[in-house]
Amino acid sequence: MKKKRFTEEQIIAVLKEAEAGAKVLELCRKHGISDATFYNWKAKYAGMTVAELRLLRELEAENVKLKRIVADQALDISALKDLVGRKW
């Protein structure tokens, strides 16, 4: 997986600079990002704080874990149905 160049905290700091009134093109030049990257960040992280972002990451990780558990249970149920459905 590709290593990210900016942490979420840094991204939120850049967006807060823009909210404070800095021009987007100057921010992009200062931080070495493209304006498309800035607008993608804005679409994804607009209005979030660092605490909210951490909570979002925790919830996403928990959601992945729960989906994995459900998938494992579905496989177990399917295997048991096949076993019970066979004629001996």
Task: Describe what this molecule looks like in 3D.
This protein is mainly α and 88 residues long. The chain has four helices and no strands. It is rod-shaped and about 75 Å long. 3% of the residues are buried. The mean pLDDT is 91.
Key terms:
mainly alpha; 76% helix; 88 residues
Write the layout of secondary structure elements.
Layout: H1 8-19, H2 24-31, H3 35-45, H4 50-85
Write the H/E string, N to C: HHHH
Work out the helicity level: over 70%
| Strand residue content | under 5%
Estimated structural class: mainly alpha
Short note summarizing the structure:
With 88 residues, the protein is mainly α. It has four helices and no strands.
